[in-house]
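The instructor's notes for this session suggest beginning with a concrete chain rather than abstract definitions. Hand out the sequence below and ask the class to guess, before any prediction is shown, which regions might be ordered.
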Amino acid sequence: MAKLPNPFNILRSKEILAILDGDTKFQEIELDDLTSLIMAMPYQSGPDLCGLSALFGLPITYAWGGTNLSRWQYLDNLIEYCIKNDKCSDLLSYMFSKEQFSKILSGHAADIIDSTYKRIVTEVIQQINGLLYFGGNEFTMIGNQFVVKKIGVKVEVAIPKIKMIDRDYIKNISARAMQDVEQGNYDSAITKSRTLLEEIFWYVIEKKNEAPLDSGDIGKLYKQVRTLYNMHTDAGIDRRINTLLSGLSSIVSAIAEMRNKDSDAHGVGGNRIAIEEYHTRLFVNSAMTMADFILSVASKNQVSKNNRTI
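After discussion, reveal the predicted structure:
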């Protein structure tokens, strides 16, 4: 029996790719009395798209000063790869996550950020569906997952299985990040460090049969991990261990902050700070150590009959 085409393939038209990579702009909206913006997806430059591809397992290097693909071609290749590896919904969830809009929306009040983010995402999805309409298809979000389906057809999305994360996985991501460091791609290395922590937090939270509270804020995810695994400083624990535990929060905070200001997710801006190779190595090694520790805590908790983990 011939294999049915993957429904996500219809997102690979140049018109839709231009929407997803931020090329296509829509109407202008006012944020407050002084500022306005034109609704669009965050603009993805060539280096951004190469970094995004690497993040999802498709290694691509941007040739500075050399010959590169068009931006839509980078995104098309990435979507094709994600379709083959059943990662397309994850890719779209990442691209549409609130964090990706931080460069556009930062500096405004929280309620304005939330309402504007929702308005932009709704507009983008409606515009994509306008292009799909006469083919009888629609692009929508069900639960935490994006799907492409026939208009009016009810689709039940199965709860995804927890991706297996072990020490080999942590070592592999860290090795790829260090390879970025060796090649001078510090932004990409920091992105991988941040993503490694987010993934390990998601993994151990789901191992407790709980839903992660906020995929865009690793600080909140770490707080949830600490609560679920009883990872709190305790007067009954050696002072030196308590000191180490309190330092873990600083690692998470620093990596999250560096991800916002210096990584490849937001291009070059006024808040961007030059970082050195040794800084980047510190971030990568810190993320690896943190991820390995959290995985160890979760593994011990799984076999322990005692509620006290640390």
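Then share the key points. Strands lie at 28-30, 36-38, 137-142, 145-150. Residues 261-272 have pLDDT under 50 and may be disordered.
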